[in-house]
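Researcher: We're teaching a course module on how sequence relates to structure. For the next exercise, students receive a sequence and then see the predicted structure as tokens, so they can try to spot secondary structure elements on their own. Here is the exercise chain.
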Amino acid sequence: MSREIFYSGLVQLEKPVKTNLQAFADYGADGVELFLDGPQWNDKEASFSDVKTYLNSYPFTYSVHGPMFDLNLTSENAAVRQMALNELKKSIEIAAEIQAHHVIIDPGICMFQIFDKHQAQRRALEAIRELQQHAKQYRQPIAIENIGHNGTELFNQEEFCHLLDHFPDKEMLGLVLDTGHANLNNWDIPEVIEATKDQLLAIHLNDNDGHTDNHLAIGDGNINWKPIFKKLQQLPEKCRFILEYNTVMPYEKLQEGKKLLSEYL
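Model: And here is the predicted structure for the students to work with:
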């Protein structure tokens, strides 16, 4: 299969970056999405300085997932919103240094129903505009992800499919579809792929039971994958396929996922 398959650094997140990179190489990764979360990325500049040479020693294409744990671009707390924005800007700068294909941006969630979701959406759009300007400065594409479920999600299926309509200037801006998150919200995944195919910079491939965001391996949940595989075949080359499995997933499962994709795509 000519299309590169990326492994997400969410897998075995607690392990050192260098350990995971070697394991990803051993188990057949074509590319790696660095997940800038966890204790090893607590000080991003120092951590990146430590691993940059090591990153360049592998033939991987890289992408970057901005931090998400404990951060929320649409928080009701202004200090939290600003911290999230600052951390994502750092992620864009790091990504640019390794010529990453894209940076994943989580637009935030509306954690509690007592808060105004429309206000949260406005905050998300404002933050994305600011991050886009930063991305343009560094010539680093960013991709906005669908996140949240059980009412915390900011955008429903239709709103996500038309999210970039809010941005007349789409330079350095795209989308990433997470199949697991879409399943939790009962989205028609093939329909979303069709509607966003020209805007997708990546797809996070993972499964679940429709209730828990546990990032299972493809086929281990209740997602109907056959029509999804058909749609994946139609995506342009710029869209990267990323196996984003959970933090305790054995490396072998990534290799199995890559083999499965090679059989269907």
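Model: If you want an answer key for the exercise: The longest strand covers residues 173-178. The mean pLDDT is 96.
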